[in-house]
Amino acid sequence: MIEIDNVHKSFGNLDVVKGVSLTVNKGEVVSIIGGSGSGKSTLLMCINGLEPIQKGSIRVDGVEVHHHATDLNRLRQKIGIVFQQWNAFPHLTVLENVMLAPRKVLGKSTAEAEELAVQQLTHVGLGDKLKVFPGKLSGGQQQRMAIARALAMSPDYMLFDEATSALDPQLVGEVLDTMRMLAEDGMTMVLVTHEIRFARDVSDRVAFFRNGLVHEIGSPDQVIGSPVHAETADFLKSVR
Ligand SMILES: Nc1ncnc2c1ncn2[C@@H]1O[C@H](COP(=O)(O)OP(=O)(O)OP(=O)(O)O)[C@@H](O)[C@H]1O
Ligand SMILES: [Mg+2]
User: Fold this and answer.
1) Domain ABC transporter, which positions (predicted)?
2) Nearest alpha-carbon partner for 80 in 2, 146, 162, 139
3) Ligand 1 atom nearest to 162, measured from its CA
4) Is the CB–ligand 1 distance for residue 39 below 6 Å?
5) Are 49 and 105 within one domain?
6) How many angstroms does the Cα of residue 11 sit away from the middle of ligand 2?
7) φ, ψ dihedrals at 216, nearest 5°
8) Same domain for 38 and 151?
9) In this structure, is residue 11 part of a structural domain?
10) Which of 107, 139, 155 is the last residue of a domain?
11) Percent of the chain whose pLDDT exceeds 90
């Protein structure tokens, strides 16, 4: 479980996250929507300790992310993260790219890492691309490779930050389908997305971010279907 409690985050004197509280339960899918600059990506970075916070706390399975004694490398092993784009190593095959972290970080043998990588690449529909170089993949295939790479670490949580926003429209669907499959498998997920219809479909809860705060949160049908706040409605109108 991820427990975010009154988190404040600033860059210099720019306050970006201004007191966010949010709990993500095991098996839950929570989508974060909101305008540009509202602090969505920053919050994800704080969840896996890529950015320090100024106030509040974030606990993952009870472990304080920003405590000085916390082993961040260990913590990050259970949190997979997929960004807009992931730059794979161009001189390594798809399979080798996905094998890398299990070998280097988890200390798996080559055979074990290969088994894990093949399994996850097959799971995301890239079983026939193992020996291909990343440059030969479509954008959608590259994003699915990024998902397989994260999954090969056997994470308990997956964070997605606009995983489809750099893709041509016709490639978005295949990546969303992969994310939907993960959600259906019971993965605990936090998704920053502007695919509103998808968020409504797969999420247990949707949080609308505004100005560094959770402005509105609730079931997808409530937040997206009948928002309480005018700002939420305005945002939804602007992205439709
Ligand atoms: N490393 C950084 N240094 C300084 N300012 C930053 C840094 N990262 C983000 N910011 C600022 O923090 C604010 C929030 O950024 P963030 O990336 O979290 O927004 P976002 O909600 O993800 O927006 P978008 O929808 O455009 O991705 C922005 O004003 C941004 O310029
Ligand atoms: Mg962002």
Assistant:
1) 2-236
2) 146
3) 27
4) yes
5) no
6) 15
7) -155, 140
8) no
9) yes
10) 155
11) 96
Q: Is the CB of 36 under 6 A from ligand 1?
A: yes
Residue in the block written with tokens 């049908």: 221
- C-alpha count within 13 angstroms, C-beta hemisphere, residue 27: 3
64 with 166, same domain: the answer is yes
40 lines ligand 1 (CB under 6 A): yes
Whose alpha carbon is nearest atom 9 of ligand 1?
A: 42
Q: How confident is the model at residue 71, as a pLDDT?
A: 95
Q: Can you give the residue range of the structural domain that contains 188?
A: 2-78+157-239
Instruction: Kindly state if the Cβ of 52 falls inside 6 Å of ligand 1.
Output: no
On whether both 100 and 151 belong to a single domain, the answer is yes
* CA distance readout (Å), 210 to 39, 52, 201: 8, 21, 22
Domain end marker among 117, 137, 155? 155
- Out of 16, 51, 85, give the residue to mutate to test ligand 1, the one with the largest number of ligand atoms within 8 Å of its CB: 16
Q: Each residue of 25-65: pLDDT tens digit? A: 999 999 999 999 999 999 999 999 999 999 999 999 999 99
What's the pLDDT tens digit per position in 201-239? 999 999 999 999 999 999 999 999 999 999 999 999 999
Per DSSP, 187 falls in state -
Band of pLDDT at residue 173, cut at 50, 70 and 90: very high
Residue type, 55: K
Is the same domain home to 74 and 161? yes
Nearest ligand, CA 39: 1
Nearest CA to ligand 1 atom 24: 36
Residues 59 and 166 both lie in one domain: yes
Can you say how many angstroms the Cα of residue 190 is from the centroid of all Cα atoms in its chain?
A: 5
